[in-house]
Amino acid sequence: MRIAQVAPLWFAVPPHTYGGTEFVASILTEELVRRGHEVTLFSTADSKTSAKLVPIWPKGLVKANLTAPFAPIALLYKELLEKQNDFDIIHDHGEQYGAPFSKFLKPPIVSTLHNPITEEKNILFKKYSNINYVAISKNQKRSGPGLNIVKTIYHGIPVEKYEFNSKPKDYLLWLSSVIPEKGPATAIEIAKMAGEKLIISGPIFSYAADYFEYRIKPLIDGEQIQFVGESDFEKKIELFKNAKAFLFPIRRQEPFGLVVIEAMACGTPVIAFKDGSMPELIEQGKTGFLVDSAEEAVKALKKIKRISRDYCREYVKKNFPLRRMVNRYERLYKNILKNHDGKYAREV
Question: What letter would DSSP give residue 170?
Fold first, then answer.
C-alpha cells in the first residue's frame, strides 16, 4: 500500500524527548516500511525515518517559539493536498488540525485520537463522519459517543528496546509532562507520606511554567524529591528500569498512558489512579495497583514487593507488542480500501 503518515508538527518524529504521539507515529511508520509498504511521512525536517520524508518546518513547533505556530500546520495540509494522488490511504495523527481539510482529500482517511476527546472536539469530529477515527482505549471510545470510531487499537511498543531490571534501586519515579492533571504534586505527596525518595522527570512547557515554579519547585529538595529535567529515550529507560515503582496519580480521562506500559516493560510495577484507561492497562495486584487516593497509594507501596517484575515484562510482551498494533492498523487499512467509498463499518 501507498500510505501517508501525517504527524503533528509539535515535535520531531521520533521525538528527542517528550512526545507520545510522535513516538507512536515513528514506530508505526518504521514497521510499515519494514513490511514493504511505500510510506511517506509528513513531519519536521529534523525527523529521522526510513520512509520518504516530506519536511514541513525545520524543527518542532513547541520549541520554535513562533508567534503564529498554526501557519506551519496549514502548510502541512497544503503539501498533503497537493500530494494526495500519491497515496492509497492517509493516516493522520493531527486530529482536530486535519479534520477540516478532510473534505478535500480523495484517499480514505484514518485518524488516531491520541488525546482526550473533549466536548468541543466531539462537536467538531461529528461534522466529519467521512474520517475513520481510531480510539486508543475503550474508555476513550466511550467519551466520544456518536463519532465514527471504527476501531479501538491499543498502542504497542518494541519491548526489546526496553531493558529489563529485576533488581531496582530504592526510588519511586514520576515521568510525564509537568502539568497539573498528570499529578506530579500528588506523586510528591505520596512519596512524602510514604517516606520514599521520588525522582521527577518531564518537560516544562511555557503554559505550565507558573505551575512548576510556584506549585512543584518549592517541594523539590534535591534529596528526597529530585527533579532531573526531561529525558531522552536512553535516560527514560534508565529511570524506568531502576525505579521500584512508577507513580501515575493522574486526574483526567487519560486516553492511554504510554508511560505505564513503558514502565512495566522494564519490569517496574505501576501505582495509578483509576481514571481514564488505567484499568485497561494495569492488572490489579499483578502489574501494579489501581487506587482512588494518595492514602491508598501509600498503602499499595507497602505491597509493591509482592509484584513480580518478570510478570510485568511478560504482560506487556503479551498484551502491548508493537507487532499487534501494526497488524491491526494494517488490517484496518486493507478493510477500508476494500470498501468502494473508503469507509469502514463502525465498531460495535
Answer: S
Say if residue 10 is in the same domain as residue 139.
yes
The CATH number linked to 233 is 3.40.50.2000
Quote the distance between the C-alpha of residue 171 and its chain's center. Answer: 24
The verdict on 183 and 229 lying in the same domain is yes
Q: Structural domain tally of the chain? A: 2
| Burial class, 191, CB count within 10 angstroms (exposed 0-12 / middle 13-18 / buried 19+) | buried
Please indicate, yes or no, whether residues 258 and 194 belong to a single structural domain of this protein: yes
Residue 123 within any structural domain of the chain: yes
Greater model confidence, 290 or 66: 290
Give the end-to-end CA distance of the chain in Å, rounded to a whole number: 27
Please give the residue range of the domain that contains residue 52: 2-156+321-338
Q: Is residue 152 assigned to a domain?
A: yes
Average pLDDT estimate for 283-291: 98
Helix 258-265 to helix 233-242 angle (10° resolution) is: 60
DSSP 172-217: EEEES---GGG-HHHHHHHHHHHT--EEEE----GGGHHHIIIIIG
* Local structure of residue 307 (DSSP, 8 states): S
In a domain, 346, yes or no: no
Determine phi and psi for 302, rounding to 5 degrees.
-70, -20
Each residue's pLDDT tens digit, 73-112: 999 999 999 999 999 999 999 999 999 999 999 999 999 9
pLDDT tens by residue, 311-331: 999 999 999 999 999 999 999
